[in-house]
Amino acid sequence: MEPLSFQEYICSLDTATLPRILRICSGVYFQGSVYEISGNECCLSTGDLLKVVAVALQKVICEDTETGQTMELPPTFKGEQGYPVPARTQWVPSSQARPLQPPWAQPHCPTGLFQPAPAPGPYPTLRGLFLKGTGQRGLTLHQALGQWDRQPQPLLCPAIGPHALLLHPVYEVHATMHLRRDMVKIPSTLEVDVEDVTEAAQHIHFARPLLLSEVLGMEAALPALAEILEGPAGPAVFESAWVPRLQRGQRLQLHGRSHAWRVLASAPRSGRHFLLSSTYQGRFRQRPRQFKGVRELVAGLRPGRPLRVVVTQDCEGQGEDVPPLCTGDWLEARGLQGNGPGTRLLCHRHSGEEEEGEGEELLLPLDLGGGFVEEACDSKKYGLAELLEQQPLPCEVRVVAPDPGLERDALGALPALRLEARLDQPFLVGSFCEEPEEGFEIPPRWLDLSLQLSEGPVHPPAPCTRRSRVEELTEAFYYRLLAQLPGSPAPPPPRPPKPAQAGTGPGGRRPSAHGPPVPGPLPMSACPAPPLLPRLALPQPSTPSQYGRRRPPRDAGCALSSFPGIDSNSTEHDYETVDDNVQKTIRKMQAIFPF
Predict the structure, then answer these.
(1) Where is the composition biased (Pro residues) (predicted)?
(2) Which residues contact 450 (CB under 8 A, 6 or more apart)?
(3) Residues contacting 22, CB < 8 A, separation 6+
């Protein structure tokens, strides 16, 4: 088949023969045609293959052969009422050979149907095609377009006007391309030449890229080999060394879905965050919980189990009803009493010197402060699954026996670990082709990437996934994940400290260069107002001060220090000190003019 323009090929295409495979022969932009598909730029280069699967008529551009004016017809055009019809001009026959009536008044040309134009010209006549095998005296818009023969034919339509018309259809072509996920939608007016290679390209398979999240639901196709087409986008999730290797061109072995669940954990003191797998073999020991205030004590109560704590911070009482709490007091929180604003926590207080049965009952208001620590007597070592059965989350623990299967267990060196929530996120077990024995577990919904499945043998046994038992999370992803947990509001990430300005100390104050630190400036009300003096010519000192530095007067310094941004002790100002003679003169003038 000879190459045709894309418009000519689509207009003459029989949709009953779809799908068809086309090859791009030439383009208009440096051997390629660039266009936009839903905002994404795509390029059709010479030699690319298209698999056309559907063609849809978008509009028809109707051109008047005499005036050159154009108008658009919708695919549903029938010439009925309600469709805007151009104003008809007065018809004047140009020759004696033409009929005496205008074309739209002829009985053989009904309104809304198309007939071949009687005007002579270089166009082949379609009268035989229009009248052959039809029970009507014209064709609808779609029937007229079906008679396309590589070039538009002159037609008449009484609903449009008296002149001959040329119909230029514009189709939307739906096609698939190799290694493109979405269906490509191309206008038929794209200026490229194509060649039909359907018969010679029957063996070609148009591979569609897959997302890792889609492979998660294709368990029947696993294990399989895959090649990464595009690495994961977005911020990093794990701090692991295997994550940066997930780049374009990397070959993977996908073995199947992992059946392990995860626990989100964080180290309170170091600010690090982890994701623990249920296959973690380390041993934990419970740490006593700490509470700040009575309200946190209420949140730590468990149904049917009293909470025993020790007071770690003195707390003042509230009148006669609430006695003060002293450090070392032993409290047993038993439950709430009352409703509404008067709700109290019922506790039994027992000091260290009293016997077991002695003590007093206290009703503590929920807004009472103080500090408490849980009395923990459990020294048993737990595995992760056993710990979650005994202890509800969140809870604080300590790793007393690291995982023996890990070369370096980062949890063993932490003084405390807070287990926050259990996650049932699906993971896929994978490995690199160059390291088939060492596997990893990747969460497709958090770390998605584009890949292509390929044929080839897969390493039979599932790889060891020791490296995924403890995954350290990035701080940004930790807070994003914490915000997605149901029922647990995520605290905002800590704000970084403000950078100190050059030459300033804490609080933005400039340190003194000589002598001890000077206290901050007094407020405006603390500075005595200086008395008003008449304008006198005061003598100027002829020698510098004894300190070798000229300083402002005391009253002037106090007045200046009351304004923000002005430091009375700054060494940047250049003032002269009033000597003793001048001060004596000022005092005499104050005695003479007492105002």
Answers:
(1) 488-499, 514-533
(2) 181, 209, 210, 211, 212, 228, 229, 230
(3) 9, 49, 50, 51, 52, 175, 194, 195, 196, 197
Q: CA-to-CA distance for 439 and 253, rounded, in angstroms?
A: 9
The pLDDT, as a whole number, for residue 79 is 65
> What H or E segment, with its residue span, contains residue 214?
helix 212-215
Distance between CA atoms of residues 345 and 418, nearest Å: 26
Give the tens place of pLDDT for each residue, 318-337. Answer: 877 788 888 888 898 888 88
Tell which residue, 163, 160, 134, has the closest CA to residue 77.
Answer: 160
Rounded to whole angstroms, how far apart are CA atoms 402 and 165?
Answer: 85
The CA distance from 217 to 444, in Å, is 11
In sequence order, the β-bridge partners of residue 252 are 226, 432
pLDDT in tens, 101-123: 444 444 444 555 788 877 555 54
The values of phi and psi at residue 127, to 5°, are: -60, -45
β-sheet with 417-423: strand ranges across = 283-286, 395-401, 417-423, 262-266, 273-277, 470-473
Structure tokens at 425: 């996120």
Neighbours of 587 (CB within 10 A): 9
**Residue 112 in 3-state DSSP?**
coil
CA-only gyration radius of the chain, Å: 44
Closest CA to 114 of 75, 68, 153, 150: 153
CA atoms within 13 A on the CB side of 5: 11
The amino acid sitting at 497 is P
Q: Rounded to the nearest 5 degrees, what angle is found at the Cα of 338, between the Cα atoms of 333 and 343?
A: 70
The residue whose two tokens read 């119909």 is 167
Phi, psi of 145, rounded to the nearest 5 degrees? -70, -25
Which is it for strands 344-350 and 435-442: parallel, antiparallel or unpaired? Answer: unpaired
Distances (CA, A) of 368 to 204, 266, 290: 76, 29, 15
* Percent of the chain with pLDDT strictly greater than 90: 31
DSSP, collapsed to helix, strand or coil, labels residue 361 as strand
- Of 231, 252, 180, which is closest to residue 209 (Cα–Cα)? 180
Q: What does the block give as tokens for 186?
A: 């191309």
Pair of tokens at residue 486: 């149901």
DSSP 592: H
Report phi then psi at 174, rounded to 5.
Answer: -100, 125
Residue 399 contacts by C-beta under 8 Å, 6 or more apart in sequence? 282, 283, 284, 409, 411, 412, 414, 417
In DSSP terms, 428 is beta-bridged to 257, 442
What is the C-alpha to C-alpha distance for residues 208 and 221, in angstroms, rounded to an integer? 15
Which residues lie across from 35 on neighbouring strands? 42
User: What are 48's two structure tokens?
Assistant: 């690319």
- Position 491 pLDDT exceeds 70: no
